[in-house]
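C-alpha coordinates as discussed.
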Protein backbone atom coordinates (compact mmCIF):
# COMPACT_ATOMS: atom_id res chain seq x y z
CA UNK A 1 0.00 0.00 0.00
CA UNK A 2 1.47 3.33 -1.07
CA UNK A 3 1.79 6.28 1.22
CA UNK A 4 0.63 9.73 0.14
CA UNK A 5 3.63 11.91 0.92
CA UNK A 6 1.83 15.06 -0.09
CA UNK A 7 -0.82 14.87 2.58
CA UNK A 8 -0.95 17.58 5.22
CA UNK A 9 1.02 17.03 8.41
CA UNK A 10 -0.86 16.49 11.66
CA UNK A 11 -1.71 19.59 13.61
CA UNK A 12 0.78 18.84 16.41
CA UNK A 13 3.66 18.55 13.93
CA UNK A 14 3.15 22.05 12.57
CA UNK A 15 4.34 23.55 15.86
CA UNK A 16 7.80 22.05 15.76
CA UNK A 17 9.17 25.46 14.80
CA UNK A 18 7.00 27.92 16.74
CA UNK A 19 9.12 30.95 15.80
CA UNK A 20 8.65 30.31 12.08
CA UNK A 21 4.97 29.62 12.62
CA UNK A 22 4.56 32.89 14.47
CA UNK A 23 6.26 34.86 11.73
CA UNK A 24 4.32 33.15 8.93
CA UNK A 25 1.48 35.29 7.58
CA UNK A 26 -1.09 34.69 4.94
CA UNK A 27 -0.18 36.36 1.65
CA UNK A 28 -2.84 38.92 0.84
CA UNK A 29 -3.31 40.63 -2.48
CA UNK A 30 -2.28 44.24 -1.75
CA UNK A 31 -5.16 45.45 -3.90
CA UNK A 32 -7.48 44.23 -1.13
CA UNK A 33 -5.82 46.56 1.37
CA UNK A 34 -6.78 49.73 -0.43
CA UNK A 35 -7.56 52.69 1.81
CA UNK A 36 -7.81 50.69 5.03
CA UNK A 37 -5.83 53.42 6.76
CA UNK A 38 -7.72 56.42 5.36
CA UNK A 39 -5.67 58.87 3.32
CA UNK A 40 -2.44 57.27 4.48
CA UNK A 41 -3.57 53.95 3.06
CA UNK A 42 -4.70 55.68 -0.11
CA UNK A 43 -1.28 57.25 -0.63
CA UNK A 44 0.44 53.93 0.10
CA UNK A 45 -1.78 52.20 -2.45
CA UNK A 46 -1.13 54.93 -5.02
CA UNK A 47 2.63 54.55 -4.61
CA UNK A 48 2.36 50.78 -4.90
CA UNK A 49 0.37 51.07 -8.12
CA UNK A 50 2.91 53.47 -9.59
CA UNK A 51 5.77 51.11 -8.74
CA UNK A 52 3.83 48.22 -10.24
CA UNK A 53 3.29 50.10 -13.49
CA UNK A 54 -0.44 50.66 -12.99
CA UNK A 55 -0.35 54.32 -14.05
CA UNK A 56 -3.98 54.63 -15.08
CA UNK A 57 -4.87 58.10 -16.38
CA UNK A 58 -2.00 59.84 -14.59
CA UNK A 59 0.27 60.30 -17.67
CA UNK A 60 -2.46 61.73 -19.89
CA UNK A 61 -3.78 64.09 -17.19
CA UNK A 62 -0.27 65.39 -16.52
CA UNK A 63 0.33 65.68 -20.25
CA UNK A 64 -2.91 67.58 -20.79
CA UNK A 65 -2.04 70.05 -18.03
CA UNK A 66 1.40 70.61 -19.58
CA UNK A 67 -0.12 71.12 -23.05
CA UNK A 68 -2.58 73.68 -21.72
CA UNK A 69 0.12 75.54 -19.80
CA UNK A 70 2.41 75.67 -22.85
CA UNK A 71 -0.27 76.94 -25.21
CA UNK A 72 -1.61 79.44 -22.67
CA UNK A 73 1.90 80.88 -22.34
CA UNK A 74 2.32 80.95 -26.12
CA UNK A 75 -1.02 82.62 -26.81
CA UNK A 76 -3.34 84.34 -24.35
CA UNK A 77 -6.34 83.47 -26.53
CA UNK A 78 -6.00 79.75 -25.83
CA UNK A 79 -7.68 79.95 -22.43
CA UNK A 80 -10.52 82.20 -23.57
CA UNK A 81 -14.07 80.94 -23.15
CA UNK A 82 -14.62 81.00 -26.92
CA UNK A 83 -11.61 78.82 -27.71
CA UNK A 84 -12.28 76.29 -24.95
CA UNK A 85 -15.95 76.08 -25.94
CA UNK A 86 -14.98 75.52 -29.58
CA UNK A 87 -12.60 72.74 -28.49
CA UNK A 88 -15.36 71.05 -26.49
CA UNK A 89 -17.63 70.97 -29.55
CA UNK A 90 -14.98 70.07 -32.11
CA UNK A 91 -13.80 67.05 -30.15
CA UNK A 92 -17.21 65.35 -29.97
CA UNK A 93 -17.24 63.81 -33.47
CA UNK A 94 -13.83 62.20 -33.11
CA UNK A 95 -14.55 61.39 -29.46
CA UNK A 96 -17.68 59.42 -30.38
CA UNK A 97 -15.69 57.33 -32.84
CA UNK A 98 -12.94 56.84 -30.25
CA UNK A 99 -15.54 55.60 -27.76
CA UNK A 100 -16.40 52.74 -30.09
CA UNK A 101 -12.71 52.08 -30.71
CA UNK A 102 -12.21 51.58 -26.96
CA UNK A 103 -14.51 48.54 -27.06
CA UNK A 104 -12.48 47.03 -29.91
CA UNK A 105 -9.13 47.76 -28.27
CA UNK A 106 -10.31 46.07 -25.08
CA UNK A 107 -10.32 42.85 -27.10
CA UNK A 108 -6.79 43.56 -28.30
CA UNK A 109 -8.10 44.07 -31.85
CA UNK A 110 -8.37 47.01 -34.25
CA UNK A 111 -10.99 48.55 -36.54
CA UNK A 112 -9.62 50.48 -39.52
CA UNK A 113 -13.03 51.09 -41.08
CA UNK A 114 -14.52 53.54 -38.58
CA UNK A 115 -13.46 56.61 -40.55
CA UNK A 116 -15.16 55.39 -43.72
CA UNK A 117 -18.22 54.22 -41.77
CA UNK A 118 -18.58 57.69 -40.27
CA UNK A 119 -18.50 59.18 -43.77
CA UNK A 120 -21.12 56.71 -44.98
CA UNK A 121 -23.43 57.62 -42.09
CA UNK A 122 -23.15 61.33 -42.83
CA UNK A 123 -23.73 60.64 -46.53
CA UNK A 124 -26.80 58.48 -45.90
CA UNK A 125 -28.35 61.07 -43.60
CA UNK A 126 -27.71 63.87 -46.12
CA UNK A 127 -29.04 61.92 -49.10
CA UNK A 128 -32.22 60.91 -47.26
CA UNK A 129 -32.88 64.33 -45.74
CA UNK A 130 -31.93 66.56 -48.67
CA UNK A 131 -32.37 64.50 -51.83
CA UNK A 132 -35.38 62.44 -50.75
CA UNK A 133 -37.09 64.78 -48.30
CA UNK A 134 -37.04 62.37 -45.37
CA UNK A 135 -37.49 63.93 -41.93
CA UNK A 136 -34.01 64.60 -40.49
CA UNK A 137 -34.51 62.75 -37.22
CA UNK A 138 -35.61 59.66 -39.20
CA UNK A 139 -32.60 60.03 -41.50
CA UNK A 140 -30.38 60.12 -38.41
CA UNK A 141 -31.90 56.89 -37.08
CA UNK A 142 -31.37 55.16 -40.43
CA UNK A 143 -27.77 56.39 -40.58
CA UNK A 144 -26.98 55.12 -37.07
CA UNK A 145 -28.67 51.78 -37.81
CA UNK A 146 -26.57 51.53 -40.98
CA UNK A 147 -23.42 51.93 -38.90
CA UNK A 148 -24.58 49.15 -36.56
CA UNK A 149 -25.29 46.82 -39.50
CA UNK A 150 -21.91 47.55 -41.08
CA UNK A 151 -20.13 46.89 -37.79
CA UNK A 152 -22.05 43.65 -37.32
CA UNK A 153 -21.00 42.58 -40.82
CA UNK A 154 -17.35 43.20 -39.99
CA UNK A 155 -17.77 41.33 -36.72
CA UNK A 156 -19.31 38.36 -38.57
CA UNK A 157 -16.33 37.97 -40.89
CA UNK A 158 -13.92 38.34 -37.97
CA UNK A 159 -15.66 36.30 -35.27
CA UNK A 160 -17.56 33.68 -37.30
CA UNK A 161 -15.46 33.26 -40.44
CA UNK A 162 -12.16 33.74 -38.62
CA UNK A 163 -10.66 36.36 -40.94
CA UNK A 164 -8.10 38.68 -39.29
CA UNK A 165 -9.71 41.86 -37.96
CA UNK A 166 -6.99 43.97 -39.60
CA UNK A 167 -7.77 42.55 -43.05
CA UNK A 168 -11.54 42.67 -42.61
CA UNK A 169 -11.64 46.28 -41.49
CA UNK A 170 -9.04 47.36 -44.04
CA UNK A 171 -11.31 45.93 -46.73
CA UNK A 172 -14.18 47.76 -45.05
CA UNK A 173 -12.23 51.01 -45.13
CA UNK A 174 -11.85 50.77 -48.91
CA UNK A 175 -15.33 49.43 -49.67
CA UNK A 176 -17.28 51.92 -47.56
CA UNK A 177 -15.17 54.81 -48.79
CA UNK A 178 -16.17 53.90 -52.33
CA UNK A 179 -19.79 53.40 -51.25
CA UNK A 180 -19.86 56.89 -49.74
CA UNK A 181 -18.51 58.44 -52.95
CA UNK A 182 -21.15 56.55 -54.92
CA UNK A 183 -24.15 57.74 -52.89
CA UNK A 184 -22.93 61.35 -52.78
CA UNK A 185 -23.00 61.46 -56.58
CA UNK A 186 -20.96 63.48 -59.04
CA UNK A 187 -21.13 66.75 -57.13
CA UNK A 188 -19.60 65.08 -54.10
CA UNK A 189 -21.15 67.51 -51.61
CA UNK A 190 -24.63 67.77 -50.13
CA UNK A 191 -25.33 70.81 -47.98
CA UNK A 192 -27.51 70.34 -44.92
CA UNK A 193 -30.19 72.68 -43.63
CA UNK A 194 -28.40 75.08 -41.31
CA UNK A 195 -31.45 75.20 -39.04
CA UNK A 196 -32.22 71.49 -39.23
CA UNK A 197 -31.91 68.74 -36.64
CA UNK A 198 -28.50 67.52 -37.79
CA UNK A 199 -26.93 70.98 -37.92
CA UNK A 200 -28.17 71.77 -34.42
CA UNK A 201 -26.27 68.81 -32.99
CA UNK A 202 -23.20 71.06 -32.87
CA UNK A 203 -24.65 74.54 -33.32
CA UNK A 204 -27.18 74.50 -30.50
CA UNK A 205 -26.24 75.94 -27.09
CA UNK A 206 -28.28 76.11 -23.90
CA UNK A 207 -27.99 79.86 -23.52
CA UNK A 208 -29.75 80.01 -20.15
CA UNK A 209 -26.99 80.20 -17.53
CA UNK A 210 -28.90 77.84 -15.25
CA UNK A 211 -28.40 74.97 -17.72
CA UNK A 212 -24.63 74.70 -17.23
CA UNK A 213 -24.91 75.03 -13.46
CA UNK A 214 -27.73 72.49 -13.34
CA UNK A 215 -25.64 69.95 -15.27
CA UNK A 216 -22.76 70.56 -12.85
CA UNK A 217 -25.02 69.99 -9.83
CA UNK A 218 -26.51 66.81 -11.33
CA UNK A 219 -23.06 65.43 -12.14
CA UNK A 220 -21.72 66.20 -8.66
CA UNK A 221 -24.77 64.73 -6.92
CA UNK A 222 -24.72 61.59 -9.07
CA UNK A 223 -21.00 61.08 -8.46
CA UNK A 224 -21.34 61.49 -4.69
CA UNK A 225 -24.39 59.26 -4.46
CA UNK A 226 -22.82 56.57 -6.63
CA UNK A 227 -19.57 56.62 -4.63
CA UNK A 228 -21.42 56.58 -1.31
CA UNK A 229 -23.68 53.66 -2.27
CA UNK A 230 -20.75 51.72 -3.69
CA UNK A 231 -18.74 52.23 -0.49
CA UNK A 232 -21.70 51.15 1.65
CA UNK A 233 -22.25 48.07 -0.49
CA UNK A 234 -18.60 47.08 -0.27
CA UNK A 235 -18.54 47.66 3.48
CA UNK A 236 -21.61 45.49 3.92
CA UNK A 237 -19.92 42.76 1.90
CA UNK A 238 -16.87 42.92 4.17
CA UNK A 239 -14.42 44.18 1.55
CA UNK A 240 -12.31 47.37 1.73
CA UNK A 241 -14.07 50.53 0.62
CA UNK A 242 -13.31 54.20 0.24
CA UNK A 243 -13.58 56.20 3.48
CA UNK A 244 -16.10 59.02 3.56
CA UNK A 245 -13.29 61.57 3.75
CA UNK A 246 -11.95 60.44 0.39
CA UNK A 247 -15.40 60.43 -1.21
CA UNK A 248 -15.93 64.00 -0.03
CA UNK A 249 -12.52 65.07 -1.34
CA UNK A 250 -13.18 63.52 -4.76
CA UNK A 251 -16.58 65.20 -4.87
CA UNK A 252 -15.05 68.57 -4.03
CA UNK A 253 -12.45 68.21 -6.79
CA UNK A 254 -15.19 67.31 -9.29
CA UNK A 255 -17.27 70.25 -8.09
CA UNK A 256 -14.41 72.68 -8.69
CA UNK A 257 -13.88 71.36 -12.23
CA UNK A 258 -17.60 71.22 -13.04
CA UNK A 259 -18.43 74.73 -11.84
CA UNK A 260 -15.31 76.17 -13.47
CA UNK A 261 -16.46 74.66 -16.77
CA UNK A 262 -19.99 75.99 -16.24
CA UNK A 263 -18.66 79.51 -15.64
CA UNK A 264 -16.50 79.25 -18.76
CA UNK A 265 -19.37 78.07 -20.99
CA UNK A 266 -21.67 80.83 -19.72
CA UNK A 267 -19.10 83.44 -20.70
CA UNK A 268 -19.50 82.47 -24.36
CA UNK A 269 -22.69 81.02 -25.87
CA UNK A 270 -23.72 78.68 -23.08
CA UNK A 271 -23.63 74.92 -22.61
CA UNK A 272 -23.10 73.07 -25.93
CA UNK A 273 -25.65 70.38 -26.72
CA UNK A 274 -22.93 68.29 -28.40
CA UNK A 275 -20.90 68.10 -25.19
CA UNK A 276 -23.95 67.12 -23.12
CA UNK A 277 -24.71 64.23 -25.50
CA UNK A 278 -21.07 63.11 -25.42
CA UNK A 279 -20.95 63.10 -21.62
CA UNK A 280 -24.20 61.12 -21.42
CA UNK A 281 -22.75 58.57 -23.85
CA UNK A 282 -19.56 58.26 -21.80
CA UNK A 283 -21.50 57.70 -18.57
CA UNK A 284 -23.68 55.06 -20.23
CA UNK A 285 -20.84 53.16 -21.90
CA UNK A 286 -18.67 53.30 -18.78
CA UNK A 287 -21.53 51.84 -16.74
CA UNK A 288 -21.98 49.12 -19.37
CA UNK A 289 -18.33 48.11 -19.24
CA UNK A 290 -17.81 48.28 -15.48
CA UNK A 291 -21.19 47.35 -14.02
CA UNK A 292 -22.77 44.79 -16.36
CA UNK A 293 -22.18 41.15 -17.20
CA UNK A 294 -21.57 42.10 -20.81
CA UNK A 295 -18.80 44.50 -19.83
CA UNK A 296 -17.09 41.84 -17.74
CA UNK A 297 -17.21 39.50 -20.73
CA UNK A 298 -15.49 42.10 -22.90
CA UNK A 299 -12.68 42.52 -20.37
CA UNK A 300 -12.42 38.74 -19.98
CA UNK A 301 -11.91 38.28 -23.73
CA UNK A 302 -9.25 40.98 -23.68
CA UNK A 303 -7.44 39.04 -20.98
CA UNK A 304 -7.64 35.56 -22.53
CA UNK A 305 -9.89 34.27 -25.29
CA UNK A 306 -9.32 30.62 -24.42
CA UNK A 307 -10.00 31.15 -20.72
CA UNK A 308 -13.19 33.04 -21.62
CA UNK A 309 -14.32 30.22 -23.86
CA UNK A 310 -13.69 27.68 -21.11
CA UNK A 311 -15.69 29.86 -18.72
CA UNK A 312 -18.72 29.52 -21.00
CA UNK A 313 -18.62 32.96 -22.64
CA UNK A 314 -20.01 33.09 -26.18
CA UNK A 315 -16.84 34.46 -27.74
CA UNK A 316 -18.30 34.80 -31.23
CA UNK A 317 -21.30 36.79 -30.02
CA UNK A 318 -19.28 39.17 -27.87
CA UNK A 319 -16.73 39.78 -30.61
CA UNK A 320 -19.45 40.48 -33.15
CA UNK A 321 -21.28 42.81 -30.77
CA UNK A 322 -18.13 44.81 -30.09
CA UNK A 323 -17.69 45.56 -33.78
CA UNK A 324 -21.38 46.44 -34.01
CA UNK A 325 -20.83 48.94 -31.19
CA UNK A 326 -17.79 50.38 -32.97
CA UNK A 327 -19.82 50.79 -36.17
CA UNK A 328 -22.66 52.44 -34.28
CA UNK A 329 -20.43 55.01 -32.63
CA UNK A 330 -18.58 55.60 -35.89
CA UNK A 331 -21.93 56.51 -37.44
CA UNK A 332 -22.83 58.80 -34.54
CA UNK A 333 -19.44 60.48 -34.80
CA UNK A 334 -19.94 60.92 -38.55
CA UNK A 335 -23.22 62.73 -37.93
CA UNK A 336 -21.54 65.15 -35.52
CA UNK A 337 -18.76 65.78 -38.04
CA UNK A 338 -21.33 66.42 -40.79
CA UNK A 339 -23.17 68.72 -38.39
CA UNK A 340 -20.00 70.70 -37.69
CA UNK A 341 -19.47 71.55 -41.37
CA UNK A 342 -23.22 71.52 -42.20
CA UNK A 343 -22.65 69.16 -45.13
CA UNK A 344 -21.66 65.68 -46.26
CA UNK A 345 -18.78 65.64 -48.71
CA UNK A 346 -16.23 63.32 -50.30
CA UNK A 347 -13.61 64.24 -47.72
CA UNK A 348 -15.72 62.89 -44.85
CA UNK A 349 -14.06 60.00 -43.05
CA UNK A 350 -10.78 60.54 -44.84
CA UNK A 351 -7.60 62.35 -43.87
CA UNK A 352 -6.49 62.03 -40.26
CA UNK A 353 -9.88 61.11 -38.77
CA UNK A 354 -9.17 57.38 -38.40
CA UNK A 355 -5.75 57.93 -36.89
CA UNK A 356 -7.03 60.62 -34.54
CA UNK A 357 -9.84 58.36 -33.31
CA UNK A 358 -7.48 55.47 -32.61
CA UNK A 359 -4.87 57.81 -31.15
CA UNK A 360 -7.48 59.39 -28.86
CA UNK A 361 -8.40 56.02 -27.36
CA UNK A 362 -4.76 55.01 -26.91
CA UNK A 363 -3.50 58.38 -25.68
CA UNK A 364 -6.35 58.44 -23.17
CA UNK A 365 -5.07 55.24 -21.57
CA UNK A 366 -6.67 52.28 -23.38
CA UNK A 367 -4.10 49.56 -23.92
CA UNK A 368 -3.34 48.34 -27.44
CA UNK A 369 -2.77 44.89 -25.94
CA UNK A 370 -6.34 44.51 -24.71
CA UNK A 371 -7.94 44.03 -21.32
CA UNK A 372 -7.35 47.52 -19.93
CA UNK A 373 -9.18 50.77 -20.55
CA UNK A 374 -12.34 52.81 -20.02
CA UNK A 375 -14.51 54.83 -22.36
CA UNK A 376 -13.54 57.95 -20.36
CA UNK A 377 -10.12 57.41 -21.96
CA UNK A 378 -11.70 58.59 -25.21
CA UNK A 379 -12.55 61.93 -23.59
CA UNK A 380 -9.05 62.47 -22.22
CA UNK A 381 -7.37 61.42 -25.45
CA UNK A 382 -9.51 63.53 -27.75
CA UNK A 383 -9.03 66.52 -25.44
CA UNK A 384 -5.26 66.13 -25.87
CA UNK A 385 -5.46 65.86 -29.67
CA UNK A 386 -7.98 68.69 -30.14
CA UNK A 387 -6.09 70.95 -27.73
CA UNK A 388 -2.90 70.41 -29.74
CA UNK A 389 -4.72 71.15 -33.00
CA UNK A 390 -6.35 74.34 -31.75
CA UNK A 391 -3.24 75.50 -29.91
CA UNK A 392 -1.06 75.10 -33.00
CA UNK A 393 -3.74 76.69 -35.19
CA UNK A 394 -3.72 79.79 -32.98
CA UNK A 395 0.01 80.07 -33.65
CA UNK A 396 -0.51 79.64 -37.37
CA UNK A 397 1.47 76.39 -37.46
CA UNK A 398 0.67 74.32 -40.53
CA UNK A 399 -1.06 70.94 -40.60
CA UNK A 400 2.08 68.85 -41.33
CA UNK A 401 3.60 69.99 -38.03
CA UNK A 402 0.36 69.11 -36.25
CA UNK A 403 0.56 65.58 -37.67
CA UNK A 404 4.17 65.24 -36.53
CA UNK A 405 3.44 66.42 -32.99
CA UNK A 406 0.35 64.23 -32.64
CA UNK A 407 2.35 61.26 -33.94
CA UNK A 408 5.10 61.96 -31.43
CA UNK A 409 2.61 62.10 -28.56
CA UNK A 410 1.07 58.80 -29.70
CA UNK A 411 4.49 57.12 -29.87
CA UNK A 412 5.32 58.28 -26.35
CA UNK A 413 2.04 56.92 -25.00
CA UNK A 414 2.48 53.55 -26.73
CA UNK A 415 5.99 53.28 -25.30
CA UNK A 416 4.65 54.09 -21.83
CA UNK A 417 1.98 51.42 -22.29
CA UNK A 418 4.59 48.81 -23.28
CA UNK A 419 6.88 49.72 -20.39
CA UNK A 420 4.07 49.65 -17.83
CA UNK A 421 2.88 46.24 -19.04
CA UNK A 422 6.41 44.90 -18.68
CA UNK A 423 6.56 46.40 -15.18
CA UNK A 424 3.22 44.83 -14.32
CA UNK A 425 4.42 41.43 -15.48
CA UNK A 426 7.47 41.81 -13.28
CA UNK A 427 5.20 42.72 -10.37
CA UNK A 428 2.95 39.76 -11.12
CA UNK A 429 -0.07 41.88 -12.11
CA UNK A 430 -0.29 41.20 -15.86
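Sequence:
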Amino acid sequence: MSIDKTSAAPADETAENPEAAAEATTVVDPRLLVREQGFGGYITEFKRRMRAGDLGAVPVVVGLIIIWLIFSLMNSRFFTAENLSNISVAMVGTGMIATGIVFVLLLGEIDLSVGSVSGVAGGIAAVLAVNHGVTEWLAVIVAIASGAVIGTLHGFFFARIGAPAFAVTLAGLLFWQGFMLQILGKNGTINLDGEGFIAKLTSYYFSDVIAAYLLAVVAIAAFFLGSFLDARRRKAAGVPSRPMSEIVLRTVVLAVIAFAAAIMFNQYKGLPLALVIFLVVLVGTDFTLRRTTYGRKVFALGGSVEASRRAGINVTLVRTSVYAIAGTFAAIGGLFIASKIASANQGAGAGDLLMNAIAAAVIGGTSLFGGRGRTWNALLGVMVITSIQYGLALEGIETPIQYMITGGVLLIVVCIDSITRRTQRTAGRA
